[in-house]
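Please decode residue identities from the backbone states below.
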């Protein structure tokens, strides 16, 4: 767990699972894979096994020791709903998140149908607590089906990470969506993001009164292109972020 993050929309990261496998075009230049594989074979390093999927039960209770409220990105180096993560382990992650209710947890996945099905089982007669935000990645028009899976999930706060934005998204159904993050790809082989793609996402959010956060233009490095879209930064958060943002200022 890292207390502090270079990711603009969170405060800290918590990785009870690391490693993943690539399943869509949005995964092609995965930063987490690129970083992890640099250390494959380095004995004793946390990423000695590179980006192989690895459960880390010793990290399960880390958020309980953090007393100051913060926004925590869950599994920045993996996907909690990877098919090889046992349901019992996902249960333990959610147990911790439910107990540590002074934080806000941000859970993001590309395995949107598995997220939906898990939440329906866990919260049969209710919805996930408001301090657990559930999100899906959407990189182009082909991946919009994940939005419908998320909308069908019993979540109190739903968000989209439209990053890397590698193609025009087109019209989205944002009913029941509370937050949208958009940004371009970064890294040695970053694919460019067209300004009209980003504007279209922003304008749909404005029309539906959905909080919009523009993370980056991307490029060789994440900060290469800056964060301004049409002359300003967009740093909106869901209304339910009040507790987390008060913790950020502490």
């Amino acid at each position: 767990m890292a207390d502090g993050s270079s990711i603009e929309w969170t405060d800290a990261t918590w990785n009870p699972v690391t490693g993943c496998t690539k399943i869509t075009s949005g995964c092609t230049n995965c930063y987490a894979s690129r970083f992890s594989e640099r250390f494959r074979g380095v004995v004793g390093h946390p990423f000695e096994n590179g980006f192989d999927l690895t459960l880390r039960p010793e990290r399960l209770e880390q958020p309980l020791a953090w007393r100051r409220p913060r926004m925590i990105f869950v599994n920045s180096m993996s996907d909690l709903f990877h098919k090889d993560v046992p349901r019992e382990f996902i249960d333990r992650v959610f147990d911790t998140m439910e107990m540590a209710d002074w934080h806000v947890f941000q859970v993001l996945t590309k395995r949107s149908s598995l997220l939906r099905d898990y939440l329906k089982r866990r919260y049969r007669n209710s919805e996930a607590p408001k301090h657990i935000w559930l999100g899906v990645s959407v990189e182009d028009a082909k991946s919009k089906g994940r939005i419908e899976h998320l909308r069908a999930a019993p979540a109190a706060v739903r968000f989209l990470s439209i990053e890397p934005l590698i193609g025009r998204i087109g019209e989205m159904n944002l009913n029941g969506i509370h937050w949208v993050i958009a940004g371009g790809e970064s890294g040695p082989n970053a694919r460019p993001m067209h300004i009209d793609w980003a504007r279209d996402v922003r304008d749909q959010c404005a029309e539906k009164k959905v909080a919009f956060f523009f993370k980056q233009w991307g490029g060789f490095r994440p900060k290469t292109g800056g964060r301004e879209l049409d002359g300003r930064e967009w740093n909106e958060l869901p209304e339910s972020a009040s507790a987390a943002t008060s913790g950020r200022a502490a």
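Observation: The radius of gyration is 17 Å.
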